[in-house]
Design goal:
11 strands; 11 helices; homodimer; 2 domains; 4-stranded mixed sheet; Phosphoribosyl-aminoimidazole Synthetase, Chain A, domain 2; PurM-like_N_sf (chains A, B); magnesium (chains A, B); globular; about 25% strand; PurM-like_C_sf (chains A, B)
Chain lengths: ~325, ~325
């Protein structure tokens, strides 16, 4: 199967909203009047962003999901994407399920494939995604202000739990592992929430490298600091209650580490004025996405952890470096 | 050097025309009113698109040039690009010259880096480029009509000559080789010509896979055929006269093969009504880019080669398959 056959068979579909899709030197996009185009690129490599064992259907989903998550963090509505793909060989047993998983999410999000490139080489998936956002309304990392609340969508840390099982450093009851593995392999980008938070959130980022690291970008770019309630944060680990029910439970250090520095979560961390708590909850309800308030933004630079009673937790964030 | 240090040091520059550049979840682009956004992605891999021996300055140039060539083929004006980069290691001796070559071309073309991704892995350079084109004026592959002339910009085949020297199948006088090697390693995208041809050319494509193959896309998508004057085409090989002057000269089969199926040329092949020859020449003069008329578009499907007197050359294009 040659390059053009491969494209025709698995990746060429009629562009519905874009003026020109796959099959010319360029695709053409026509943002609606008053709209800006949000753009993000992510490159996924085996061993770094996914394991060789992953089901290609889930991988197709994830490759687009991590990009849609960047659009979500800007409050943009998905529009289109390009796919550049390096493949060791043109293997239909991989291409068919990969494209199926990819297009299932693309169709669900109204995001159409408009172009790309295929070449032979070590497996590498590079997607560039395009979304629309009304001019001036994109959620940025730089808008957090002292006094704002700090929120996180969904749950954090489950993908990391699954990874540690794959690495052999942890064992989990099978149903807990399968649920954590699904979070790792098929993350749900918070696209609807991101759009619902336009005009409500003051800053946002998607949590892909771990909450502390990603929150650090907001703090630096906004020139502020934050205090996180570690007790509230620990409730974000979805597997936590399941583990306790199964008689297991996690070492507290590992539990907190997964939540604060786990990575691969694709949730949104965002800030909003304390006066807008009702608006945040309304946006969350509209997007059918739970949100949890885990801290507050402060003028004093740096990141502080406190327990449920507000007492400082003396722990250097470096203690999470064993996750690096 | 970590990922964020690497980005800061070599790839983070202030966005001048885009509302938001490197450093947030997404970049923001704001096409001017009435403009469509032309988008193209290319992935470059060592061994396929460049040799390990290439100077990183030239590689930085080429990685962007092959993408700008796609914009040129659509008649779009360069605006911005994203860069996703997989690197075996963060080697400053490679990153500094690579980024220097990249930005030299980017600055010359007014095309700014607005985002991307870096990760560790086998060297892979994936650029997505954005350009502006007035709505409805993009040059497409589908617009060629019977009676149109077939034109090619610049020269063809020199990159292939250089590749064959690297492969050891050919030897060239040193000055001829260095000139051909420059064409292979540092191609000049025909950006100004593409824009000048808006409203003049009926179809266009960039010649990256070889003239016959790329012209085939125009013919299929336009539902037409073509006859190429092989004698006129052979004049496109810039090294031809240089070789003859140096007393060398090429086997005719190899010469024609380099021109028709060489690859890696990044010239424009385009069609225009015969009545627009003056307009084509005016566009070429405006863009300071020579163009050569090498054939004509016909209603009869297929691609025919004739000699300087119009006599059919009985040769199957398959004869160029040894280049594959």
């Amino acid at each position: 199967m040659g390059e053009f056959q491969l494209i025709d068979r698995y990746f060429k579909r009629r562009a519905l909203r874009s003026p020109l899709g796959v099959g010319d030197d360029c695709a053409l996009l026509a943002p609606a009047p008053g709209m800006q185009l949000a753009v993000s690129s992510d490159m996924l490599l085996e061993g770094h962003h996914f394991l060789a064992t992953v089901d290609p259907v889930r991988l197709g989903h994830k490759a687009l999901a991590v990009n849609l998550s960047d659009l979500a963090a800007c409050g943009a509505q998905p529009l289109a994407f390009t796919l550049a793909l390096a493949l060791p060989q043109a293997d239909e047993r991989w291409l068919e399920p990969f494209s199926r998983g990819l297009f299932a999410l693309a169709d669900a999000q109204g995001c159409e494939l408009v172009g790309g490139d295929t070449t032979r080489g070590p497996l590498n998936i590079c997607i560039t995604v395009f979304g629309e956002v009304p001019a001036g309304q994109a959620l940025l990392r730089s808008g957090a202000r002292a006094g704002d609340d700090l929120w996180v969508s969904g749950t954090l840390g489950d993908a990391r739990l699954a990874l540690e099982v794959f690495r052999g450093t942890l064992s989990l009851p099978e149903p807990v592992f399968q649920s954590a593995r699904l979070r790792m392999e098929q993350p749900v980008p918070r696209v609807a929430l991101g759009q619902a938070l336009r005009g409500v959130a003051s800053a946002a980022i998607d949590v892909s490298d771990g909450l502390l690291g990603d929150l650090g970008h907001i703090l630096r770019q906004s020139g502020v600091g934050a205090t996180i309630d570690a007790t509230a944060a620990m409730d974000l680990l979805a597997a936590g209650p399941a583990l306790q029910q199964s008689g297991g439970g996690l070492d507290q250090e590992l539990h907190l580490g997964c939540v604060l520095a786990g990575g691969d979560d694709y949730e949104l961390a965002f800030t909003a004025p304390a006066a807008r708590r009702d608006a945040v909850q309304a946006a969350a309800a509209q997007a059918a996405t739970p949100v949890t308030r885990i801290g507050r933004i402060e003028a004093e630079p740096g990141l502080r952890l406190v327990d449920g009673r507000g007492r400082p937790i003396e722990r250097r964030y470096g203690s999470f470096d064993h996750f690096a």
